[in-house]
Amino acid sequence: MNNSTHSLVDRDLCRRFDISGPRYTSYPTADRFESNPGHQLLVDALQQRPASDQPLSLYVHLPFCSTVCYYCGCNKVITKDHNKSSRYLDYLEREVDMQLASLAGSRQVAQLHWGGGTPTFLSDEEMMRLMGILRSRFEFLPDGEYSIEIDPRSVDPRRAHLLAELGFNRMSLGIQDFDPQVQEAVNRHQTFEQTRDVLLAARDAGFKSVSVDLIYGLPRQTLEGFRATLEKTLSLLPDRIALYSYAHLPQIFMPQRRIHETELPKAEEKLSLMAMAIETLVDAGYVFIGMDHFARPDDELALAQQAGKLHRNFQGYSTHAELDLLAFGVSAIAKVGPVYAQNAKTLDDYYGDLDAGHLPVRRGYRMNDDDALRRAVIQELMCHFGLDFAKVSQSWSIDFASYFADALEQLQPLAEAGLLQISAQRIDVMPKGRLLVRILAMAFDAYLQADRKKAPEGRQRYSRVI
Ligand code: SF4
Question: Which of 69, 77, 195 has the most ligand 1 atoms within 8 A of CB, as the residue to mutate?
């Protein structure tokens, strides 16, 4: 794979195709789920789970944060009151037991992820309690991937060791930008030393992979300042780096209204920030995995991609083949067999549903065969930047060229622009098309295509690609 920066970033193409698009952590995308499908949707899916020995993946959403970062688009609750998290754990326990009452098949777990919010908002005792709830009900496999999102402002080296003792072996750590001017503008004050100490402690405690998040396009960001952030970040040798584009959508995300639009980098400056960041990461030896993610060449994500064994799920890229995903907590999304189910997004609704004695499912969807096929195609494109028509035709008993004739026609202008090559046998995404892979995936999204037919200039549903 040619992974040189110059082949990844084509500024003209980035300008031309800077349109909004989904991230495809699911297909259909979560905005297509039906509202109020009824909690029975998930109950049935749990009960109908084949009695296989396939282990599970678990996701727990912990929504609390003690301060707000103005750029944030996550589902969170800002508070300093720990009574709130203690009550939340009571309800999480009830939700776990309610799901288990319907769950057929294996209770072994190969993947666990605590996301947020800030999972490390929980006190030591609360984290021990939550892990105890899970471990007493599920069997955690010894070689599983157990990950947690941490905020270095709420984790010191001692706590990093506690997390390892609890069984976590992967950590993702928010940085965004070390520049004090930027930190001031987004209300996130976090020193390099705080971050370094946690990361070193995580290594010392035996964490197998440490990933960090950076964001370009934040207010007051400059090329020099962000380059310094990248250099400091690289000095920590993280296994993976996620480089996100800041999407300014203040009409949707309230905290973003506190960002001064005049301080945001203009489109060309943002493009320069992105190009410089990618160049710096690639020159430092990181491999572009896809969709904002970079990894060291010896990291398991990079190795899985090379071996054609990379997958994509709600947490992004993964080395695990798809497992049924049980999800707990506000706004969490489960996927069990062909069913997606998303929980209530507010604490009041979440508690209210559990008090009423049923699962707090508020949105959901049961995939049909066409969804499952398109999902597999989109996943293949996003994980491996290519599609072998015969392989898809054989696996799904279709004729690829005729089934996806519309999609192939849609891709033609993108092929002419140099983003991909289409032959009679396959599609290959060119290096300069890789940053824009979600635009290619959109051609296979039946829901988006139907929308476009109805309203070609329809409203912006998704964050911009760059
Ligand atoms: S970015 Fe993270 S820590 Fe900041 S408000 Fe959002 S969820 Fe909380």
Answer: 69
- Domain range holding 301? 33-324
Give CA–CA dist 243/255, Å, rounded.
Answer: 21
* Gap from CA of 68 to ligand 1 centroid (Å): 6
Residues 254 and 133 both lie in one domain:
yes
Residue nearest atom 1 in ligand 1 by C-alpha distance: 72
How far is the C-alpha of 135 from the C-alpha of 129, rounded, in Å?
10
Instruction: Assign 122 to helix, strand or coil.
Output: coil
Residue 425 · residue 390 · CB < 8 Å: yes
Q: Do both 218 and 255 map to the same domain? A: yes
Select from 262, 296, 324 the last residue of a domain. 324
Report whether pLDDT(186) > 90. Answer: yes
- State the pLDDT at residue 466: 63
For residue 353, is it within any domain? no
Computed on alpha carbons and rounded to an integer, the radius of gyration of the chain in Å comes to: 22
For ligand 1, residues with CB inside 6 Å are 65, 68-69, 72, 74, 76, 116-118, 151, 174
Mean pLDDT score of the chain: 93
User: Which tokens is 293 given?
Assistant: 């993610």
- Structural domain contains residue 307: yes
> pLDDT by residue (tens digit) across 12-40?
888 888 767 888 989 999 999 999 888 99
Inform me whether the pLDDT recorded for 122 exceeds 90: yes
Q: Do 13 and 53 belong together in one domain? A: no
- State which of 61, 67, 80, 118 you would mutate to test the pocket of ligand 1, scoring each by most atoms of that ligand within 8 A of its C-beta: 118
- The total number of structural domains that make up the chain: 2
Best mutation site among 67, 71, 74 for ligand 1, i.e. most ligand atoms within 8 A of its Cβ? 74
Q: Are 356 and 348 in contact (CB under 8 A)?
A: no
